[in-house]
Design brief:
Distance between the termini: 83 Å
Radius of gyration: 33 Å
Length: about 130
Amino acid sequence: MRKSAMILLLLLAPLLAYLLMAPVPVQPLPWQAMPDAGYSGAHQANQKLSKLKLLDMHGEVGPEHIALGPDGKLYVTSESGRILRMQADGSQFEVFAETGGRPLGLDFDAQGRVIVADAMQGLLAIGPDRKIT
C-alpha cells in the first residue's frame, strides 16, 4: 500500500468505528397511511366532456385557438393561415379571412374587429368587412 492510502485509512478508521458503535437517540416508528378516499373533490370522475361533438374542419389542420364572436359564431385559426367562421354546431362553415401567415390566437375588440396574433405577420386587425390592417 502506498503511504497516502495508509494515512487515509488511519484517518477514516476512527470515523467508521464511531459510526458503527455510537448510540443513536432515534427510535424509528412505523408510519400509518391514511385510508384512500378514492377519486373525490376536484379529482372526482365526471362525464362533462362525454357529450362533445367534433366539428368538421373541412381538411384544415388546427385549430390553434377558438373564439366566440360578437355575432355568436365561432372563429377558428388554422395552420394554413385562414381564419374560419362557423355556427356553434359547425354549420355555415366559411373562410372568414386569410392572413398569409400562421394565426396563433385571436380575440375581438370593442369595434367588433378580430385581433389576430400571427406568428409570421405580427398583430393584425380584421374588420367586419374582412379587410386586414
